[in-house]
Write the structure tokens for this entry.
Amino acid sequence: MEGSVQLDDNALLVLRERYLIRDEAGTLLETPEELFRRVACSVSQGENNDPEGRSAEMEEAFYEMMTSLEFLPNSPTLMNAGRPLGQLAACFVLPVEDSLDSIFDSVKLTAKIHQTGGGTGFSFSRLRPKNDVVKSTMGVASGPVSFIRVFNCATEAIKQGGTRRGANMGILRIDHPDIMEFVAIKRDPAELTNFNLSVAITDEFMRSYEENRDVALINPRTKKAAGKVNARELLRFIAEAAWASGEPGVIFLDAINRANPTPHVGEIEATNPCGEQPLLPYESCCLGSINLSRIVRNGGIDWQRLQKLTHLGVRFLDDVVEVSTYPSEEIRAMTSGNRKIGLGVMGFAHLLIRLGIPYDSPDAERTGGEIIRLIERESKIASNRLAEKRGPFPNFKGSVWDRKNLLQRNATTTTIAPTGTLSILAGTSSGVEPIYDIRYKRILPGGIEVEVEDPLWRKAKDRPDADELRRRLFRKAYEVSPFAHLNIQRTFQSSVDNAVSKTVNLPETATADDILDIYVAAYRMGLKGTTVFRNKSRGYQILSCGTHQ
Ligand code: CDP
């Protein structure tokens, strides 16, 4: 028996329910330590393709950083490494062309991906609009929304073999003729329950918005205008839908493509389900997160350990690209061509509490900025060293890294993931979000509802100055102003290659105008997208407040 991992009750519950191997009778066949050993052993086999690879040494280093809960890879890696499925990435984007063959090929691939715990994103912008002509049958087209329903039903039927509910992202360009139907569809809570939706907004649209002009809606089949709409009215319509239901989100397509490291390989049209990973069609990416709460030593940040974890994290994820299996040959080819990885963080709010810094303060932005700049810089150094030994990613020539003359093993190295499950396993706050509350109800993966008390609050609540600490340091998501949320998103976005998973939480009393202001501010900040969530705007919430202070 190896040394034990310090997991709290909820972490053990989630591990037992979803991650630990069982036999057909349901008996557990591994302990949490054995799970991490399985992952470390399997991922370190990626070293074997490197003449200077050090698989035994790396296995120990990987095992140690996982069991100390300093670093965790995304869920599919924990579930599938060293097991028959062997598919380790959380994020996929699949193409949807304007033909039945393409649509149903993607439905099939989606099913295979969901079976392994991966999430899928699609742009539906190439589909001809509703009521357009279908030559072969002399009929009329049913439009993007009805095809999104097909993906939604397929996802419903699979339910990922009981391990993980399939997650999808559906994207439609703002100039698609069916945009109004797309924006309004999720006001009905029974619609597209396995999808997040995002409107892809362009720079041109935002210019029309600023100048209060009309925008043309373009039929993607004919490339001709099929109507027009006032830009301000349309963005307001989106804000009203988001006010009512938290959907759709928005992504800023041109900002995403300005940061596309391989424009010579293709244009980016979509992201993964939670928006933090823009990808090319058929591309996949594996994420991993450093637990910032664990790098606080004696009231300060252990920069050396953070640097070490960044190097190890990049090496781990590069090995993952090597050992993972891929759901199709196209996905294998595209993923191995760019070798994108997404190293990020969780536990940022807990780090701030431990350092005595309020989340909505200039100090928080400064601290976040220092951390993410170090991770970004060191991840590039790590990827460069791997490229020297293992070779650059195959599409390197013609990439932005080629133009910058910086040899890289990976087309991207950094992403801030939501860490929905990972943060439960690590017993810390998720991603770069503030704590949700000091006590709250949470629906764990698997549908179990639990009461959670923030572990740092549990220690602080008996102190004589607990009330003051609560107000100053334990800042809840809904107490943090929308602009403080955006400032933190900008801080991290400024130094990550991919994107930042971030929700701007709004109080129940917020208005559609508040949401419009957030869109405009997010666009001006150069962010890649925004998600807003007004408290109680959806009947079913994964998190709900337990205190009203
Ligand atoms: O914490 P964990 O690794 O489980 O996942 P996360 O950081 O909350 O989400 C990262 C990505 O995993 C998402 O953006 C999706 O691509 C994927 N995901 C999914 O496919 N299904 C879910 N139920 C949750 C996440």
